[in-house]
Amino acid sequence: MASTAAFQPGPTMSVYFATKAFVLSFSETIAYELKGTGVTVTALCPGATETGFKAAAALDKRNLFKGNAIAGSKEVAEFGYKAMMKGKTVVIHGFMNALIVQSVRFAPRNLVTAIARLKLKE
Fold first, then answer.
1. How far lies 110's CA from each of 10, 81, 106, in Å?
2. What is the pLDDT of residue 68?
3. What's this model's pTM, rounded to 2 decimal places?
């Protein structure tokens, strides 16, 4: 389980974001190494998802969860399962999440970090 957090720095949640970046990189590498063996690896990268993690990590007051349509865990799990069954390596749940992840690639890193900080702010 990776996350859209894997694609950008996350001020105030640096260890979480860095861990997700590791999971993504590791998954891609292992998937490549296992090519041709019949074993696949899928890194599922959802954005904010309605789970118990939000409450446990006290994230419910963060801008990330305000005014946005938040996907349910069942919806994300079904999406990930279908992608895994198709043998996909990296999948991003949600059109807006995919768009944001792609835009991060073209934006200056300091701008990406500043925007991430705004989304993580209470």
1. 11, 35, 12
2. 67
3. 0.83
